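User: Just a sanity check before I run the rest of the batch. Below are the structure tokens for the first item. I only need the designed sequence back.
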């Protein structure tokens, strides 16, 4: 059990105007800090544009949508299925040609 606790880390993240305490995998610390920074930057941009015209809740949701959209685009951009299909077809064609020659 003590070995497992060494892999965990208790940190404080500054997200927009709040400190959040989290316990994370030690290897993920940089990702958590960068995520908190991204959320803060995006929230600040929306707050600056819409403060007084939109509620804090709506600004937070706009921030979430912005970040989720980036995530979805990235996920879609990494779709390897079309490439896998082309490679499988080309491999099959090459194997057929090689079989004919043997």
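Assistant: Here's the designed sequence for the first item:
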């Amino acid at each position: 059990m003590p070995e497992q606790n060494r892999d965990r880390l208790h940190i404080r993240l500054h997200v927009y105007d709040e400190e959040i305490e989290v316990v994370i995998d030690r290897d993920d610390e940089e990702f958590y800090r960068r995520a908190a920074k991204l959320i803060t930057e995006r929230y600040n941009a929306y707050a600056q544009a819409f403060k007084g015209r939109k509620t804090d809740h709506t600004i937070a949701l706009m921030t979430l949508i912005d970040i989720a959209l980036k995530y979805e685009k990235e996920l879609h951009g990494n779709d390897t299925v079309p490439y896998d299909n082309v490679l499988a077809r080309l491999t099959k064609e090459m194997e057929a040609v090689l079989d004919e020659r043997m």
